[in-house]
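Posting this for the archive.
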Amino acid sequence: MNRRQFFSKAAALAAAAALARYEAPARVLTGLPDSKPAEPAPAKAVKATSGSAIGMKYFPYELKLKHAFNLARSSRTTTPDVQVELTCDGITGYGEASMPPYLGESVESVCSFLGKLDMEQFNDPFRIEEIHDYMDGVAPKNCAAKAAVDIALHDLCGKIVGQPWHRIWGLNPAKAPCTSFTIGIDTPEVVRQKVAEAAPYRVLKVKMGLGNDRELVDIIRESRPDVPICVDANQGWDDREAALDMCHWLKEKGCIFVEQPFDKTRLDDTAWLTERSPLPIIADEVLQRLGEIAPLKGVYSGINIKLMKCGGLHEAYQMATLARALGMKVMFGCMTETSCAVTAAAQLSPLADYADLDGNLLIANDRFDGLKIVDGRITLPSAPGIGVTLLS
């Protein structure tokens, strides 16, 4: 397939792939669990078609957080990260793998996986589907590592044709939503400081799950009485009756949704809450890949798609398409990341009901310039590829 064909058919193929790769369409309506996934195909080379070989380099880059990132089950001041660069015909695409502890990946595992890849066998970066098949054949899982390659491929291809990906996908950048700004669990004094820093943002995201949930909301309401808030419990709630009561209270306080209230294994309790809650209940930790979406219909109101969990933009687009087909809400989120991965995810944001793309705002050592937040709203860059430039 030549480049013109690739881009003219990209949107249609992604939509078809999202449905075709889900092998049991009857379960889309019933919510029954999918059958056991097939074993990954063996690693195979893809015959080169044009251009020069794709070169790759990668290196660790620890992200330093402006504030300690406190969740219901963990706290950290840094996030491990690996930066990836793919080069073809003198053009470089950038990608990254960010690895919060719960993903189960590490700098060592990402570098080990990347070291097994023979990217020089490819000299056509537009064969993204085949390169993903190749990576899956090298080793299963390793989603953050694969996301780094995927993001760099998209950046490279967009730069070759001179277009940003939101335009390649036919998305209207004016439809990009406001992003939330995250207020982590902390002391009242630090929470007030974070709320003051978040003054430019029109939606705030509150981390909950340590017993002081209502106090956090009340502190925010002291200085921002009208700003919409969204809540991420990070699996920190235990009692479903108390959770329902909290959802009703949060609704009165101007909350717009609740993310991952219970442990990801508690599907029955989550379905019970979703049926009764006045607020949408959004899936995060329970969900990673495309084939896991359909069984969650009726359990959750919507899904949070993150590039580091699903393996990059290629599958994220398919996940958003399938979720829409199932009548579920779509949210694009991120980890603590540089502007590289956050801006890549933002290219998909016109498809979203909600966006939580503030990971780059939480770090002190960003390597890139990319998306901008103007009056709280995501403003997509016009630069080609994923839309980032490397800072000097």
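The longest strand covers residues 63-70. The domain at 168-390 is CATH 3.20.20.120 (TIM Barrel).
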